[in-house]
Write a structure and sequence with these properties.
Strand 3, helix 4 and strand 4 form a beta-alpha-beta unit. It is globular, with a radius of gyration of 20 Å. It has a single domain, classed as Alpha-Beta Barrel (TIM Barrel). The chain has an eight-stranded parallel β-barrel with strand order 1-2-3-4-5-6-7-8, surrounded by five helices. The protein is α/β, with parallel strands linked by helices and 217 residues long. The longest helix is centred in the last third of the chain and has 17 residues. The protein contains eleven helices and eight strands. Helix 1 runs parallel beside helix 3 and helix 8 runs parallel beside helix 9. The chain binds erythose-4-phosphate (E4P).
């Protein structure tokens, strides 16, 4: 399973990239606004830190303008993935860009039928929003399971990029279902490293090692 981080905070991205476990980055207009930085500048900088795909989202609502925006974003770096919303115009843009070999991430997916359309449009990634479905009384993880089944039925290459993940059990469940990629905020990804028994065990080993009076170096 690939790990993407969902942020436009460059310090957090550098920190996670230094682990060697980060496969890509997703951003959205809200995250860009939160960074307080210029969109094009921050995407270019992120692309220099991470080798894998960096999703940059178009903001136009019509196909023609989406294509123009995508052309600007594509010039920033070779690892930019163009993010488009799951609308008719978004999928037209997805189809056109994927036919040119561009990686497209179709975002704001809330149903299995929408995911089916995105795959037919040649999306490299589909982003179903688990947390937002849960927030609205639906079952976000069930959607990941449904999309997995449909994509496997037809051998679609589109990768399921489980998004809007809010906690470590979301990630655990996505791994069990077989999501190809997860994206989550830095704090959620960092929480995966922790376990209280790891801390406790380490403290005991340190104390016992000190008693030996030895050193390795
Ligand atoms: C994914 O690409 C989105 O940027 C993100 O996961 C949305 O998460 P949220 O619902 O927590 O805002």
């Amino acid at each position: 399973m690939k790990f993407f981080v969902d942020t436009a905070d460059i310090a957090e991205i550098r920190d996670l990239a230094s682990t060697g476990l980060l496969d890509g980055v997703t951003t959205n207009p809200t995250l860009i606004a939160k960074s307080g930085r210029k969109f094009l500048e921050v995407i270019e900088e992120i692309c220099g830190v991470v080798d894998g795909p960096v999703s940059a989202e178009v903001v136009a609502l019509d196909h023609e303008t989406m294509m123009k925006e995508a052309a600007v974003l594509r010039k920033l770096a070779s690892n930019v993935a163009i993010k488009v919303p799951l609308t008719i115009d978004g999928l037209k843009t997805c189809k056109a860009l994927s036919s040119e070999g561009v990686k497209v991430n179709v975002t704001l997916c809330f149903s299995a039928n929408q995911a089916l359309l995105a795959a037919k449009a040649g999306a490299a990634f589909i982003s179903p929003f688990v947390g937002r479905l849960d927030d609205n009384g639906a079952d976000g993880l069930q959607l990941i399971e449904d999309i997995r089944l449909i994509y496997d039925n037809y051998n679609f290459d589109t990768e399921i990029l489980a998004a809007s993940l809010r906690n470590s059990s979301h990630i655990f469940e996505c791994a069990k279902i077989g999501a190809d990629v997860i994206t989550a905020p830095p704090a959620v990804i960092k929480s995966l490293f922790n376990h209280v028994l790891t801390d406790k065990g380490l403290a005991a080993f340190e104390a016992d090692w000190a008693k030996t009076g030895q050193s390795i170096l």
